[in-house]
Automatic annotation (TrEMBL):
Keywords: Cell membrane, Membrane, Transmembrane, Transmembrane helix
All copies of domain MrpA C-terminal/MbhD, residue ranges: 10-74
Record-annotated membrane-spanning stretches: 41-71
Subcellular localization(s) per the UniProt record: Cell membrane
UniProt membrane topology term: Multi-pass membrane protein
Pfam families per record: MbhD
UniProt protein name: DUF4040 domain-containing protein
Organism: Parasulfuritortus cantonensis
Amino acid sequence: MAWLVLLLVVLMLGAAVLVLLLDNLVAAVAAASVVSLLLSVLFALLAAPDVALTEAAVGAGLSGAVLALGLRRLGLAGIKAEDDHA
């Protein structure tokens, strides 16, 4: 059990460092969501399923969606809308 917890913590730290180092902002948002998902797995292993579900829903799902939509709204997502030339 201790090895699994240690592995999860190392993976979370790696993903957190990626958030800081990535130039692509969409990839940074995805890495932040990975941190939240791994944390929810850690909470589930520590016998806190209510906290794990909340972290998965809010931390990975809602926060990732809000950040991605914010990037799109600011024009920083790198996704270009196709114009209709009719």
